Amino acid sequence: MTPNDITDAVNRGLGWLLVFLMGVAVLNVVWQGFTRYVISAPSQFTQELARYLLIWIGILGSGYAAGQRAHLSLELLPESLEGRQLSWLKIVIEGSVLAFAFIVMVVGGVRLVYILILSGQTSATLNLLIGYVYAVVPLSGLLISFYSVIHIMEEVHSMDEERMNPESSSAEA
Fold first, then answer.
1. What's the distance, Cα to Cα, between the start and end of the chain in Å?
2. Are 99 and 22 in contact (CB under 8 A)?
3. How many whole angstroms separate alpha carbon 114 and alpha carbon 75?
4. CB 10 within 8 A of CB 143
5. What is the mean pLDDT of the chain?
6. What is the dihedral of CA 148, 72, 57, 28, to 10 degrees?
7. Looking only at Cα atoms, what is the longest distance across the chain?
8. CA dihedral in degrees (27, 29, 34, 36; nearest 10)?
9. CB of 64 within 8 A of CB of 14?
10. Higher pLDDT, 75 or 127
11. Taking the CB of residue 59, how many other CB atoms lie within 10 A of it?
């Protein structure tokens, strides 16, 4: 199994998980509207569930966007560079993203989840441990770290190919 196969499998799995969560969120909000306006007996759990689903969709979606390189970025400096300089800039950027995702989201997120689970704090209507809601933070941090490592490996590989075949890279440009 190659790194591309693994990345494709993670992309597919994460994409389908996000589609599923979004479908559950839509059904939840439709149920909330139905119970409130049609039968005049609002469901108690739907608002809290919608909030937690939004958290999971947003944070997991940021991991997916990082993997697709669809996140927000400034293109001022990359547009003025080319070749090895551009590759090095991309490696530095991905390294910075990797450091942030791992230190803040994974390490900090695991500590947050651990503290919240130890405290035993539960949600009001779902009676769900709040630590489980915030478990998406280290999970997304791991996904962003994974994608950053893959992107760094791709840049290093492209730099090696350019070094080995300098005439093919100038023909592509």
1. 31
2. no
3. 38
4. yes
5. 91
6. -160
7. 72
8. 150
9. yes
10. 127
11. 19
Rounded to whole angstroms, the Cα distance separating 113 from 85 reads 40
Contact 60, 121 (CB under 8 A): no
Inter-axis angle of helices 108-119 and 136-164, nearest 10:
170
Which residues 6+ apart lie within 8 Å of 1 measured at CB? Answer: none
Closest to 92 (Cα-Cα) out of 144, 141, 151 = 151
Instruction: List the structure tokens of 3.
Output: 């790194």
Identify the DSSP state of 121.
-
Burial of 167 (0-12, 13-18, 19+ CB in 10 A): exposed
Residues 25-40 pLDDT 10s: 999 999 999 999 999 9
- Model pTM greater than 0.85? yes
